[in-house]
Design goal:
- This protein is mainly alpha-helical.
- It has a domain at 25-139 and 173-265.
- 81% of the residues lie in helices and 0% in strands.
- The chain has 15 helices and no strands.
- The protein has helices at residues 2-19, 25-49, 55-80, 82-87, 89-109, 115-123, 125-136, 143-161, 165-169, 175-193, 203-228, 236-264, 266-271, 275-287, 294-318.
- Helix 7 crosses helix 10.
- The longest helix is centred in the C-terminal third of the chain and has 29 residues, at 236-264.
- It is globular and about 50 Å long.
């Protein structure tokens, strides 16, 4: 019995550390980079299975699996912080709708738009996040941050369009592009509004509440999609897919992103989203046997330069 009590005490101590985890700025940059790598890998996977899996169902189930995975870690916190949770439930549900809704919108968008268009729109998120942050919490951009965002965007465009101006000129906005814009705007709003959640709610608890409330809200759409389109096929491959997308990506990467976001803020965090196309290109080279070309190196260099200037600009502003 004593061993069990010691185990419970040790578990509570570890959970408390997860809840109150506050990384240093340098560690926050590293954690956010890992999160963007996981998102890039999930995009590659989602594009590969989009013909077999319905987008709303897959998106809803992945977030629901992530929430169920976190439940054993947070149930005691839910009881202890019930009063704070109730008083902020409206904001929590809104964050859930933004997180899960944006993920679902992008999954649907990939059925209508090209990878080129979707990646270009994704590259605009730092600017959109900065604009939303300025509108909602009045967070200003330093000149270096603005330059960093611009340089990072140019780097992403170089990678996506392979230095071919004709690809850029011929791009047309369609339904998928519109949904991708909605998704990017939703994530930008999520990043800004997350700052309004009380710090008394730990990272793990917030993550559980957000993804669980969001996935529950989208369950009716999943049912409708299953009836009028097709349900998510349940197989051994589906279990593996939901494990990776639900636990590793949805729970794991969002935890890393949230921890980093709380440490360095939405503007600096959003600059790192330009790494997603860079990582995606790298994964394509490794798994699809594509060659490393000059435009890959030029674009990646610009992206990293943009991140450096954005981070440096914020540090200079604080001095």
């Amino acid at each position: 019995m004593g061993s069990l009590n010691n185990y419970i005490v040790k578990m509570r101590e570890n959970l408390d550390k997860l809840e109150k985890f506050q990384p240093s700025p340098l560690l926050a940059y590293f954690l956010i980079s890992i999160a963007t790598f996981l998102w890039a890998s999930s995009i590659v996977i989602l594009r590969g299975v989009r013909d077999e899996y319905p987008p709303v169902g897959l998106s809803t189930l992945r977030w629901l699996v992530g929430g169920l995975f976190l439940l054993p870690f947070v149930w005691q916190q839910l009881l202890e912080k019930a009063r704070i949770i109730r008083s902020n439930m409206g904001l929590i549900v809104l964050l859930g709708l933004l997180q899960v809704g944006s993920s679902t919108a992008l999954a649907v968008a990939l059925n209508f738009t090209t990878a080129i268009n979707g990646s270009v729109i994704n590259a605009s998120q730092p600017a959109i996040t900065a604009l939303i942050a300025w509108l909602i919490i009045k967070e200003n951009l330093s000149p270096l941050q603005a330059i960093g965002i611009l340089i990072g965007l140019i780097g992403v465009i170089v990678i996506i369009f392979r230095s071919d101006i004709h690809l850029l000129i011929s791009m047309e906005l369609n339904l998928g592009d519109g949904l991708a814009i909605v998704a990017i705007s939703g994530w930008g709003t999520y990043a800004v509004l997350l700052q309004k959640v009380p710090r008394e709610l730990g990272i793990t608890t917030i993550l559980f509440l957000v993804i669980t409330s969001g996935s529950i809200c989208f369950l009716p759409l999943y049912v409708v999609e299953s009836i009028i389109y097709k349900p998510v096929p349940f197989s051994y491959e589906t279990v593996i897919l939901l494990f990776f997308l639900g636990i590793i990506v949805s729970a794991g990467s969002i935890y890393l992103w949230t921890a980093g976001l709380r440490a360095i803020g939405p503007n600096k965090s959003s600059i790192f989203l330009n790494l997603i196309p860079v990582f995606s290109a790298g994964l394509a080279i490794i798994f699809l046997s594509e060659r490393i070309l000059t435009f890959h190196l030029i674009g990646a260099s610009l992206v990293f330069l943009g991140i450096f200037l954005g981070v440096r600009g914020r540090l200079t502003e604080k001095k």
